[in-house]
Design goal:
The complex is a heterodimer of chains A (about 110) and B (about 110).
Chain A: E1 3-5, E2 10-14, E3 19-21, E4 24-26, E5 33-39, E6 46-52, E7 60-61, E8 64-69, E9 74-79, E10 88-96, E11 99-102, E12 106-111
Parallel strand pairs in A: 2-12
Antiparallel strand pairs in A: 1-4, 3-9, 5-6, 5-10, 7-8, 8-9, 10-11, 10-12
Chain B: E1 4-7, E2 10-13, E3 19-25, E4 31-38, E5 42-51, E6 54-57, E7 64-66, E8 76-78, E9 87-94, E10 103-104, E11 108-112
Parallel strand pairs in B: 2-11
Antiparallel strand pairs in B: 1-3, 3-8, 4-5, 4-9, 5-6, 7-8, 9-10, 9-11
The chains are: A mainly beta (about 110), B mainly beta (about 110).
């Protein structure tokens, strides 16, 4: 079975500080992709970052970076210099074959 | 480009009624999919399509039908609505594979009474 687990339902961080959101996954597939999507109050889903499992180098996108630990099946998201616009629900996701699996989400609040 | 569009934005149905949620994209994407989002459950894949004429089931397909007669359109049909289908429904598309970036529509909030 393919599963994605986010164990932190809610988190908060002070503006300009750094926060890390956790995600673990389980799959027996050797080829898969991992994602973080952001859903602000507008409900629009927006891609934050994407990681190809066969690449050892951790993906980065400006203030967003991941810590991909393949053996531990862990894929955490680090947000540096948090901004008020980062307040959103964050979903970890995994693609295997033609299927896509999401975690239950972490609600992040950035405090001014 | 309009991206991914969904209609309607809101819908209230009575138990047993049927309806179709519309989804269209103008990016010439091959892969299209439908998700439902429920509180505490994240998004779950209902059905997907890898191209015109090809559809398959996702994680939670029961009670839903899909078809893909054109590259642009991917409607989701509720055959006999049940209260358990109360949810927010998202359509998404990506260029070729779900491993590409998925572009999501704005969602449809459906309530079944």
């Amino acid at each position: 079975a393919q599963t994605v687990t986010q164990s932190q339902p809610e988190m908060s961080v002070q503006e300009a500080e750094t926060v890390t959101l956790s995600c673990t996954y389980d799959t027996s597939e050797s080829n898969y992709y991992l994602f973080w999507y952001k859903q602000p109050p507008s409900r629009q889903m927006i891609l934050v970052i994407r990681q190809e499992a066969y690449k050892q180098q951790n993906a980065t996108e400006n203030r967003f970076s991941v810590n991909f630990q393949k053996a531990a099946k862990s894929f955490s998201l680090k947000i540096s210099d948090s901004q008020l616009g980062d307040t959103a629900m964050y979903f970890c996701g995994m693609n295997t074959g033609n299927q896509f699996y999401f975690g239950t989400g972490t609600s992040l609040t950035v405090i001014p | 480009n309009a991206g991914v569009t969904q209609t309607p934005k809101f819908q209230v149905l009575k138990t047993g009624q049927s309806m179709t949620l519309q989804c269209a994209q103008d990016m010439n994407h091959e892969y299209m999919s439908w998700y439902r989002q429920d509180p505490g459950m994240g998004l779950r894949l209902i059905h997907y399509s890898v191209g015109a004429g090809i559809t398959d089931q996702g994680e939670v397909p029961n009670g839903y039908n899909v078809s893909r007669s054109t590259t642009e359109d991917f409607p989701l049909r509720l055959l006999s609505a049940a209260p358990s289908q109360t949810s927010v429904y998202f359509c998404a598309s990506s260029y070729s594979y779900p491993s590409d970036e998925q572009y999501f529509g704005p969602g449809t909030r459906l309530t079944v009474t």
